[in-house]
Amino acid sequence: MHPETEKVLGSSAKESGGPNPWPRWYLALALFWLAFVGLLAFLTRIGS
Amino acid sequence: MSTLDWLVFLGSQGLILAYGLWSMSRQGQAESYLRSRSQTGWMVGLSIMATQASAITFLSAPGLAYREGLGFIQFYLGLPLAMVVLSVVALPIYYRLNVYTAYEYLETRFDGRVRRLAAFLFLTQRGLAAGLTIYAPALILSTALGWDLLWTNLLTGSVVLAYTLSGGSRAVARTQLLQMSVILLGMVLAGWWMFRSLPSDWSGSDALQLSALAGKTQALVLRLDWNDRYSLWTGLVGGGFLMLSYFGTDQSQVQRYLGGQSLSQSRKGLMLNAFFKLPMQLMILGLGVLMYVFYVFETPPLNFKHPERVAAHDRVLFEQEALRRRATAEAWRAATYPQRKDSLGMEFKRSAARLDSIQSLVSERNKSMASGDDGSDTNFIFIRYVLDFLPVGLVGLLISMVFCASMSSTAAELSALSTTTLVDFYARWTGHSPEGPRALAMGRLFTLAWGLYAVGFALIADRMGTLIEAVNVLGSLVYGTILGIFLSAFFSKGLRAPSVLLAALLTEALVLLLYFGAEIPYLWLNAVGALAVPLLGWIVQPWLAGLSSQSPKTPTLGS
Asked: Taking the CB of residue B342, how many other CB atoms lie within 10 A of it?
């Protein structure tokens, strides 16, 4: 991995000095994605 | 269109144009012409979405769902993952380096040649695409409304050029907010009207079950088949790489999120897109499915593009079958015994299939009748519904929505083309700063030049026949290579400029060979290109050791 990328990943978004909020955003997004794929699976199932 | 429709259309477009021009008075230096660092996360997110959603999305997607169901939604399934990767990796690097364009980073990491190659690939692809984003909706509107194609092209092109020229990146972002509002309002109102036009005793659940019977709710394909155009896997892998490349390395998008007030606000914009894009796209496709149910009760035209090019006996046959389908649907809904309901459901499916085959036959005939006509009427299904069934006033709003979608994409494209030409070529070669009055003048000159190029391409596009199709696939032919260059820059410590340059050229040749020789579905080409550049880079690097004696550069803050 390039040093600049490592530096960015290491300091990931601790901009204000407080706790990093982004991992929670990403987790929420992952759950949302799973729910959305679940909805698509439901729609597909009612047609089969 | 009625007088009220014209008032709504001209009023909304006039308001947007005036707002765009007003933005001019709010900026006076190149910094905000090229990159307006003033937007909140919501504004960044809406701007990203407005740039991606072109008019053809709103015109074609409902028609696609009307014919083929919801399967196209899988194309977008890789988007949220791509947003996270960009938010974690690319965005902080662009902010640290304080770049105007994504390609500046490549010079810091590799050298000027790699930067110019990526910028050149972008300009080639996006320049032609800008012409197409003007031409495609103009063609559909002129055919459906009887407007002159030349004047429709000129009207769209000149309005978008006027506010992009005057207000630059800030005007593009601000007008996109209004345009996105018109687009969302138009879609919601069209859906509401469509639903209330169904028979009053039909519930939403009845409509959903009927569309499921016709196979329109098939939204997820789990089998792993190389030839499936859209499946969970093509969407996640191929679509994921395409989204990564489009949002991470295409300046028309990079410029949108670099307009955030801070890194945090830009990240929020990317997250907004990650959360809202999938539901918005499902809503647009859902309109097509709802339209299918509507046309069960209202005999549809046999061909939405050329209703006149239909033989009388075909029409009679089609209308009789449509009446049979309607009667079957009503009997199916009224049936209470499960066996009877199943048997009527099967009859409805057979009737729907018969209508599809008559329609396909007519499309094939139209295809053979006129050269340059692919026979498909998918792009005309939604606009035909708008003109034939929406009430006065709403028609004007929906036509305005199509113009908004077209202009929001075109403006972002012109702004990005101008910025890339200015920063990656003009300023790089002349040594002038990309900020200041001289750069502002040059930026406007490049916007004008690209605008004229795009409008010029739009004007001759109808004479180019199959070339238009070639422009459509061009994006997938170069995006993989560009992403591969960026992935090499982000994730490989030892790869050097000559190796990446040679690997990118070899990859481009490989992608072209695969597309034209092996006829692989185009989404996979993005993944192939993105992975081939770093892989080939490592393979050719030992052979180029003598040429690449200098050590790789490490980007520094503010360089």
From this structure: 12
